Amino acid sequence: MNIEEFRDFCLSFNRVSEEFPFDENTLVFKVMGKMFALCDVDEFESINLKCDPSIAMQLREEYPGIVIPGYHMNKRHWNTIVMENNIPDQTIQKWISNSYDLVVANLPKKDRMNLH
Per the record's keyword annotation, is S-adenosyl-L-methionine included, yes or no (predicted)? Predict the structure, then answer.
């Protein structure tokens, strides 16, 4: 997956915005103002995705050195995925979808109702 494919997939979800809230290199994808994915646009060496803590640990064990605790993030709730490996796009898309769904599930009910 390259950065254009990553961006297109993230933007395919309902009510997603893209922003540069931290600096000019860190592209952040948000749903209703809450982050679910981010990456460095210049290097695209890795992506950060929100993850259920128990699943995050499983993925880190299953993909050592590829899925690591979230860089500059809450390491319990975020994973960094190293993109230079041969992880199938379907797997990365599943992780992105899970991140989006996790954030949506934690939105207030009225915001969840406004997603469609």
Answer: no
